[in-house]
Amino acid sequence: MAHRKPPLREVHADRGAKFTGFGGWEMPVEFDSIRTEHSAVRDSAGIFDVSHMSEITVSGADATELMQRLTTNDVTALDPGDSQYSCITDESGVILDDTVVYALPEGLDDADAATPTYLFIPNAGHDEQMYERWTTHRDEWGLDATVDDQTEEWAMFAVQGPEAPGLVADAANEEILDLSRFEATNTEIAESECLVARTGYTGEDGFEVLCPWDDAESVWGEFDCQPCGLGARDTLRIEMGFLLSGEDFDPENEPRNPYEAGISFTVKLDTEFVGRDALERAKDEGVDERFVGVKLAERGIARHGYELRSDDGDSIGHVTSGTMSPTLGEAIALGYVETDYAEPETRVRVVVRGDEKRARIVKTPFLEDK
Amino acid sequence: MFEIPDDLRYMESHEWTSTDDVARVGITDFAQDELGDVVFVELPEEGDDITKNEEFGVVESIKAVSDLYAPISGTVVGVNEALFDQPELVNDDPYAEGWMLEVEPADEGEFDELLTAEEYREQTE
Predict the structure, then answer these.
(1) Closest A-chain CA to B85
(2) Nearest-CA distance from A86 to chain B in Å?
(3) Which residue would you say has higher pLDDT here, A109 or A70?
(4) Which own/partner contact pairs does A231-234 have at CB distance under 8 Å and 24+ positions apart?
(5) Residues in A touching B42 (Cβ below 8 Å)
């Protein structure tokens, strides 16, 4: 199957980017070097093209009810211009996807505080499946809501790092500096009407910018900072212990509920949603395995799929993401272990190509000042 | 353009070897660029034998793990231990400071079976 291409595919190629297939999209993985890009975001600022992320809008009289019943968080807590991290779970509570749900700021269309228009951002390549899920349930429940897959109408950029707010304020206006974390507003950048939100996936301050697909080049050009690929996006999010859909959870290969995955804060059991009853049981009964951070004490790098063992040599879990942390200069990993072994400072072993390497469970984020 | 010294011989899998009595082995400029930031190398020890076309070690960048294949058979007489603390030397200087092994060749005839610089250049273009 041919990969979908972001609007700036050729602009990035001219800049010397290397590409990789991700979620059915052909995306820049590296512009200069992962280390260079990673440090730029931690020390100054970097810009990522994340146009592979999906965009689905939900509007109409019953939009709130449809969103409430298909996501684990409480969308009624959102005023227009707010957003929240949330999960989409199946009947058994397994995470199908994680997402950010926005109640769009007023002014974009005829939405208002009583019947906001929602935008949610499924992961790359999940737009068709989520569109199906939303429309099927809408019809089954007889709700009045319009669901629109706008994935190929929006480019999405993430401008991240301690200097990102200044860059975005210069490109847009000073008022965006008043946005709190997870707040969004409509604003013009390079004469293009954009949605700017104080969100990100790096652990740094910064913004995500949605702009019309056809304006991508002029908006991208407003940000004079290090272009960054998916490689640095991965090392940055691993240092923060953030989950990656398809790696750290996956309905097929790594079925996990939000309690196992360490994101129970996204679950509001006092709301009604698909998977709620299963998650209430999971909460009451406790989970057998937990998502943890792992730090290696010996030379070697833990990668997706590597086995984790107890100090006695028993198999206790596996790694789902791992890398050499560019900030720490140490090998770090994320994965699931049996709950008895999930306490920080528990000594474990990672099996690297048949050899056991000493390691220990650590708290995430791996970076102390985050 | 990638640097491909004329006096070395090459594998299709991007390892190089010198043709000296004690041959130096490493990975090419093209290979280090493809891998990106090298963060870890796993190499045999002095005295170990390596066999042409078989794995002799592993190089890991931030994003990938790659096996290393022996361009020649022989006995390892030197290991670049600087790479254990500074694996980035493989990126910075793949043909000099980033060398990996010194090998006493078992059969010098094997050098002729490898790609010349010109043949390797064609492959990478």
Answers:
(1) A299
(2) 28
(3) A70
(4) A231/A29, A231/A30, A231/A34, A231/A37, A231/B36, A231/B62, A231/B63, A232/A30, A232/A34, A232/A37, A232/A38, A232/A41, A232/A46, A232/A48, A233/A48, A233/A50, A233/A158, A233/A201, A233/A202, A234/A321, A234/A323, A234/B63
(5) 300, 353
